[in-house]
Structure prediction request, 226 residues.
Amino acid sequence: MDKKNKDLFIGIGLLLGFAAVLTLMFMPLFQGNNLINKIDNLYNNISKGSAYYIPKLKKDAKSFSGQYIRLQLLIDNERLKGDLANLLNVNGIPSQSEDGQLIINADFGQLMGICLDDTDLMYANEGEKVRTRYGIQERRVLYTWWKGMQAIDKFLIKQKKYNESKLVSSIIQKGVEASYNYYGIEAQNIRDRVFMVVFSLMFYVVYTLWFGFAILFLFKGAGLKL
Prediction:
């Protein structure tokens, strides 16, 4: 067998092996999950464990305690406006609809703290407590806070209250959005799964090189030079 044929057969063998492993990766071999989902869940768990900023946000919100503010929020969706008013009412914060706006008079630090308390419960996957408290689906509560905080942020910027706006923006991104996206996922520390992380990274490198060498030998066997 000449060298070209040998390279061609090596390339075909590597490619077939690559395809066989790829097939196994998509089979539900891990308690009903395939390897792709298993690894994806692993990194979701680890990323949630490293993205918990709510305690710091609560500390930042406390610095605004005692600062009363009148918010005039423009919310076009009547259902959303009603849901936000309900969240506020349950927590003892009065609001009223006036000229198409939702008017809120509240301690700014307290208001932010209430939002963060719900966000914290959702981050801990304790959505049932949130649902029981407000009588609406827990993801709907977070969505309402998300839209409400966006409206608050717009109002604050218009009023040139940039310090307050900075806090609200952080709560939206690092609190409400993170809790919504990670809801239902168990947080894990990377130190607890270091073996799986190292294995998955090494496997990724080896598997990528595997495919690369398969193509290399196929081209060489076909008489093409790279």
